[in-house]
Design goal:
This protein has twelve helices and 13 strands. With 327 residues, it is of the alpha/beta class.
């Protein structure tokens, strides 16, 4: 049964801040942040109070530039952390979020590592209480089967919490030639966020990985304006990998599920659970209260979710002075 919290009810506008590590157009990268931002831009139920960028899918200069370039943003993009080492360091991202929260409460949607948010909470604990919910693309269950491809030689990782290198094939989670150390993301930031009392909704990788776009979907998206064409054209290698090498029916747009959860939560099966970062730096979500902090998590989504997402991705942009726009 799919149940909808009060947040994001139809007919209500939800004020959000989106933090992203978008790297569309940079070789070997996942492109799902781009689809998530386009979905947000074309969702009249969302009012985007601000957008920040983070390291993750690529270095900070790349993610900030790609975010500005990909959608022709009406809002400025506030650069944040360059690495996990920036935890606690004030940035344009923390200053922008501070200004936005002084105006009104908002929902924080984290599509990348959590360093920017954890830093803000550390620097401004009083203002952080004005965040009404955190939606994070993060977490996995102990029973998740995240292996895929022929003979299951590939494995998905919760790269927003702890990026793990696949030593067998010599590629990291973005399928980039291996040159970074094991575990470069920021589990300490996640631990800090779990210590707050802010309501948290997780979109675990095992759930978000099931939201796919196929070749026909990409053609339809490409035909609907410069922003859609930009994303579709730069999704070619990504799509080839997921369909030819991973042998899936389409490419997973993981981050888009977080936007669906914000704007149309009635499509999502939301369950109560408990989350904790384990000794290996993984964010583990359990249904039982053995340990961890109480959270909610997306365990499934309705069949109509794909139709909803495609309808929005192929629609004109949302008519809002505070939303991204097509160029």
């Amino acid at each position: 049964m799919f149940r909808s919290p009060d947040h994001g009810a139809r007919g209500r506008t939800r004020r959000v801040w989106i933090d992203s590590d978008l790297a569309v157009g940079s070789p070997w990268r996942e492109v799902d942040d781009g689809y998530a931002l386009l979905l947000a831009a074309r969702s009249p139920g969302l009012r985007i109070a601000g957008i920040s960028s983070s390291y993750g899918n690529a270095s900070l200069p790349i993610t900030a530039a790609r975010t500005r370039e990909s959608l022709g943003l009406a809002l400025a993009v506030s650069p944040g952390a360059r690495s996990a080492a920036d935890l606690g360091l004030a940035t344009e991202a923390t200053r922008g979020l501070k200004a936005a929260l002084r105006q009104n409460k908002l929902t924080y949607i984290a599509l990348g590592p959590l360093t920017n948010l954890a830093t803000f909470i550390q620097l401004h604990p009083g203002l952080a209480t004005r965040i009404d919910q955190i939606i994070m693309v993060a977490g996995e269950s102990t029973s998740a089967d995240l292996a895929f491809g022929p003979a299951k030689i590939f494995r998905m990782h919760d790269a927003n919490v702890r990026k793990a290198v696949n030593a067998v094939i010599g590629l990291d989670t973005e399928f980039e030639p291996r040159r970074r150390q094991h575990g470069v993301e920021d589990p300490n930031a996640v631990r800090a966020i779990l210590r707050t009392r802010i309501p948290i909704l997780l979109a675990p990788i095992e759930t978000s990985a099931r939201l796919l776009v196929d070749r026909a979907d990409l053609r339809a998206i490409a035909q609907r304006g410069p922003a859609g064409n930009y994303l579709a054209e730069r999704s070619r290698f990504w799509f080839w990998f997921w369909t030819t090498i991973a042998r899936k029916k389409g490419g997973p747009i993981f981050d888009a599920l977080a936007i669906v959860a914000a704007v149309r939560p009635g499509l999502i099966m939301i369950e109560d659970g408990y989350a904790a970062v384990d000794a290996d730096g993984k964010l583990i979500v359990r249904r039982e209260a053995a340990s961890g902090r109480a959270v909610q998590f997306c365990s499934n989504f309705a069949p109509a979710t794909k139709t909803f997402v495609l309808k929005r991705l192929t629609a004109p942009r949302a008519k809002s002075a505070h939303a991204p726009r097509d160029r």
